[in-house]
Amino acid sequence: MFWHNFKYAGKMLIKGKDTLFWTILFPIALFTFMYMAFGNIMEKDEMFKDIPVAVVRDGENDTALMMVLSTLSMDGEDKRIDMEVLNEKEALQKLNDEEVTGVIYTSDASLTVRQSDIKESILESILNQYKQMEQMYLNLMQKDPEAASEIIQKTVQSDAVYYEEISTTDGCQDEYYNYFYAVLAMSCLFSSFAGITRMHKLQANESALGMRRCLSPNPKLVTVLAEYLALLLVQFAAEVITVIYMRLFGVQFGTKYPAILLVLFIACNIGIAGGMLLGSWSKCSYGGKIGIAVAASLTFSFMADLMVHGIKNSIEDKLPILNRVNPAVLVTDCLYALNVYDNYDRYFRNILILTGMAVCLLGASILVLRRNKYASV
After folding, report:
1. Which of 167, 237, 272, 314 has a beta carbon 3.0–4.6 Å from 195's, enabling a disulfide?
2. pLDDT tens digit string along 229-263?
3. pTM above 0.70, yes or no
């Protein structure tokens, strides 16, 4: 009887449009829209890269400045700019087309930019430093041009360190990835909808199917476990599909995939067990239970930074205990720790809490269901 219930519960879940939408289509669609909105913001605006710059040579005594700029554009660890010598019209056109960050005029070491941000400030700092040492460079060029080249190169490389990209981890530290991790957490919690639906169809006072199943000689515990495992299999498969889809878009999860799958597996248990516990509550209508599940899932996800970045850190500063009991926060924290940290300390702490939640919710739902009695069916 166990395998019979398991098989047909799985078939109903796979064929159910609601299950297909909330477990697979909705998370994938939400992730896709988020990725289109800000998936590359970090790489475009916050990560330092070589600064593209156009240089307009319209001066007779610009050898020293050109040597400084050439040194900063040399391939290697000390490269800071990507220089291109153009006439003024071409340079300004590239600036308007945002192909270069700024235009440097060698006649007076001036800079023209479209806006002011970090990259423009770096270019301005380069020119300001050059102006401070301009006379020294010119004197060197007049006395010994060959020696001047080496001295200028050493001076620029030793002093003009405007930024340096230092890798503290092999994982991606893009802060916007937390949105995508929160989508996975929300998807796991949405499995509570299926849990409520299955319990609705198991209780005699809520559905005609529940009446017939209560008259079955099959032990209720066996029926509940079969339904539970079918739900878990379908939901976990949906999470794996979502992760694969995210990876196709370049979202980094690190390389610890067994640990990642364990997080999602336990999170699915929490969502399903929570839905079954809520579904076994006989004093609330089916619609009311779904409403509570939606509100709880979205609230937990909101606190995990799904809608607004920084909420999780604010709660961590003010009331950290809320983050320790929020399954969505624990899931995102596990995924972040696996991606960024080399050790598993933070990960195992969260996994223990998640496992405890899953066991307690499942035990409570089974206990409540077994205590449900009917005067007549």
Report:
1. 272
2. 888 888 899 899 999 998 888 788 878 889 999 99
3. no
